[in-house]
Amino acid sequence: MKTIKFLPDQVSIEVEEGENLLAAAAKAGVYINAYCGGDGVCGKCKVQIESGEVISGKARLKEKDYAAGIRLACQSSVKSDLTVRIPEATGKDGKALKRKPVTTRAISARSLDDLIGTWQVDPPVEKRFLKLDPPDMEDNVPDLQRLMRAIRQRCHDCKDPTYDHPELLMELPFTLREANWEITVILLKGRRTEEPDRIIAVEPGNTTDKLYGLAVDIGTTTVCGVLVDLGNGKVITEASAYNDQIAYGEDVISRIVYSQRPGGLRTLQDKMVRTINTIIETVCKTVIINPSDISYIMAAGNTIMSHLLLGLNPKFIRESPYVPTCSQFPLTRAAQLGIQAHPSVRLFLYPAVASYVGGDIIAGVHACRMYKSPELTLFIDIGTNGEIVVGNEEWMVCAACSAGPAFEGGGIRHGMRANSGAIENFHIHPQTLEPMIITIDRIKPCGICGSGLISIVSELLEAKVIDQQGKFKRQLEHPRIREGEDGWEYVLAWGKDTLMGDDLVITEVDLDNLIRAKGAMYAGYLTLLESVGMTFTDLDRVILAGNFGAYIDLERAISIGLLPDIQRERFYYLGNASMLGCRISLTDNARFRERMQVSSLITNLELAENARFMDHYMAALFLPHTDMGLFPSVREKLAG
Question: pTM for the complete prediction?
Answer without folding.
Answer: 0.83
